């Protein structure tokens, strides 16, 4: 660090005072800077020129530093990072260049795109934002994308497969000193059905559902299939506060003022909560049919629409048919995808792999199709 910063200075004839921006046990990252007046005017040529200039200086700096090392210790030039987004120690992302014509890939270290202790939604959001910021150089578009995802999350529009967290089961609930979410859930699933419950060595998938006020996170963990079958409401605030907030703030903090503004505002004011079909207060609730047009409770003998919406029954029925067709097409698409993966388009899908995100999408699509068909059956169709 000292030798590089001493030599590469304006006083020694270089265009900028060089700064070592980051270094650890086996690597050092240097910012050389460049002269605007020497760079080409065209943006694409300018980028290539900057990368090429950095490579030349890096090779020269490596040779210079090696004169002070005792053999066989040697410092070698490896790559150029441009643009380079440093969040904190051992957390950064950048486009990696080994030649000035085109970058090789987007390189990420220590951030959520390469970690397994978050749900897929976090990895998707961070990866999309990084590509937008580093490749498109559009911070505003990335910020709008984050707001859109948060809005969809609060409106319950995110697929459950994106919200699943998985952890390996190494101990039973009796062996664990401090039982965690997946350990407690594994025991709960064993009590429901020992034949399908996870065993030691399995990875346990779970999502967080709404619990009683003040409930701990591990108490809100639930089997994704059980959630789908019983229409349990997802705890969207847990995902926003415990999963998305810190990665988003860390990512945008170096490039925008007040990144916390992305987590509040107009896009967070609408919230949709699913109504559970079993358990809790639903044990004491008597279900009644409501009008498919205006949601008014129906009188005895009415099955689809109320007297006020009778004139619109044909239009409401047509919309219901379109909905069934749409759900059928979606389910068929996922079913066919699973058949192809299985190796035959003429057999039932037998796959029950919970590690596959399509498994949950297929089960959700099937449930949505059945619900849509039940709605359509409420019309007295004479054909």
From TrEMBL:
Task: Read off the InterPro entries from this record.
Answer: DNA-dir_DNA_pol_B_CS, DNA-dir_DNA_pol_B_multi_dom, DNA/RNA_pol_sf, DNA_pol_B_thumb, DNA_pol_palm_dom_sf, DNA_pol_type-B, Znf-C4pol
Enzyme Commission number: 2.7.7.7
Query: Which biological processes are named by the entry's GO terms?
Result: base-excision repair, gap-filling; DNA replication proofreading; nucleotide-excision repair, DNA gap filling
UniProt cross-references to PROSITE patterns, sorted A to Z? DNA_POLYMERASE_B
Tell me where in this chain the DNA-directed DNA polymerase family B multifunctional domain is found: 14-255
Q: What domain of life?
A: Eukaryota
Keyword Phosphoprotein set for record: no
The record lists the catalysed reaction(s) as: DNA(n) + a 2'-deoxyribonucleoside 5'-triphosphate = DNA(n+1) + diphosphate
Identify which top EC class this enzyme belongs to.
Answer: transferase
One matching Pfam family: zf-C4pol
Q: Name one GO molecular function term.
A: 3'-5'-DNA exonuclease activity
Q: Which SUPFAM superfamilies match?
A: DNA/RNA polymerases
Question: What cellular-component terms does GO give this entry?
Answer: delta DNA polymerase complex
Q: Where in the cell is it found?
A: Nucleus
Going by the UniProt record, its keywords in alphabetical order are:
4Fe-4S, DNA-binding, DNA-directed DNA polymerase, Iron, Iron-sulfur, Metal-binding, Nucleotidyltransferase, Nucleus, Transferase, Zinc, Zinc-finger
Q: Which stretches make up the C4-type zinc-finger of DNA polymerase delta domain?
A: 291-362
What protein am I looking at?
A: DNA-directed DNA polymerase
Native organism is Hemiselmis andersenii (Cryptophyte alga)
């Amino acid at each position: 660090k000292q030798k590089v910063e001493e030599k590469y200075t304006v006083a020694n004839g270089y265009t900028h005072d060089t700064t070592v921006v980051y270094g650890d046990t086996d690597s050092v990252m240097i910012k050389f800077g460049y002269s605007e007046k020497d760079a080409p005017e065209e943006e694409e040529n300018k980028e290539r020129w900057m990368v090429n200039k950095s490579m030349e200086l890096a090779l020269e700096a490596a040779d210079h530093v090696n004169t002070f090392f005792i053999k066989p210790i040697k410092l070698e030039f490896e790559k150029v990072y441009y643009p380079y987004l440093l969040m904190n120690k051992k957390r950064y992302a950048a486009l990696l260049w080994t030649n000035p014509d085109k970058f090789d890939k987007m390189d990420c270290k220590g951030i959520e795109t390469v970690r397994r202790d978050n749900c897929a939604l976090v990895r998707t959001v961070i990866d999309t934002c990084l590509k937008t910021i580093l490749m498109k150089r559009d911070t505003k578009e990335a910020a709008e994308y984050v707001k859109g995802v948060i809005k969809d999350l609060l409106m319950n529009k995110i697929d459950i497969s994106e919200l699943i967290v998985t952890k390996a089961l190494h101990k039973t609930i009796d062996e664990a000193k401090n039982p965690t979410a997946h350990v407690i859930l594994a025991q709960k699933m064993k009590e429901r059905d020992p034949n399908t419950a996870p065993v030691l060595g399995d990875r346990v998938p779970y999502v967080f559902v709404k619990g009683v006020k003040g409930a701990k996170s591990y108490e809100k963990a639930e089997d994704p299939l059980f959630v789908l079958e019983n229409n349990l409401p997802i705890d969207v605030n847990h995902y926003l506060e415990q999963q998305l907030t810190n990665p988003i703030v860390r990512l945008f903090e170096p490039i925008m003022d007040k990144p916390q503004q992305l987590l509040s505002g107009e896009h967070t004011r609408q919230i949709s909560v699913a109504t559970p079909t079993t358990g809790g207060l639903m044990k004491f609730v008597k279900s009644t049919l409501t009008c498919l047009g205006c949601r008014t409770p129906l009188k005895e003998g009415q099955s689809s629409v109320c007297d006020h919406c009778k004139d619109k029954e044909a239009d409401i029925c047509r919309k219901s048919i379109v909905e069934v067709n749409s759900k059928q097409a979606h389910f068929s698409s996922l079913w066919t995808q699973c058949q192809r993966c299985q190796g035959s388009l003429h057999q039932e899908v037998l796959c029950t792999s919970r590690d596959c995100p399509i498994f949950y999408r297929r089960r959700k699509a099937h449930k949505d199709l059945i619900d849509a068909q039940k709605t359509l059956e409420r019309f007295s169709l004479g054909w």
